């Protein structure tokens, strides 16, 4: 009944998750694991981060748009399943 919709939804979610995870691996998000272990013990505050460039702001905007589209797709799948379900 609802299984094809939810299986498609889950497959899309898994695919997007794998794409984002591979992007994070390529960008080096998981490279500095030793430093992350000691961050709670570091007494001095870090220097302020540099002002974000235009590319970073565009990247953040794209991520928010993707999150909004994901939520909209979730709502659409649920509504479609509820309306067309028997």
Q: How is this structure best described in words?
A:
By secondary structure, the chain is mainly α. It contains three helices and no strands. The model has no long low-confidence stretch (mean pLDDT 85). The protein has one domain. It has helices spanning 3-27, 33-38, 54-84. Helices cover 72% and strands 0% of the residues. The longest helix has 31 residues, at 54-84. The radius of gyration is 19 Å and the shape is elongated.
Layout of helices and strands:
Elements: H1 3-27, H2 33-38, H3 54-84
What brief labels describe this structure?
single chain, elongated, mainly alpha, 86 residues
Rg is 19 Å
Give the SSE string: HHH
Low-confidence stretches: none
Number of strands: 0
State the separation between the terminal residues, measured CA to CA.
7 Å
Strand pairing plus helix content: what structural class?
mainly alpha
Major sheet details: none
The tally of domains stands at 1
Tally of DSSP helical segments: 3
Approximate shape:
elongated
Q: Helical content, roughly?
A: over 70%
Mean pLDDT: 85
Q: How much of the polypeptide forms β-strand, as a percent range?
A: under 5%
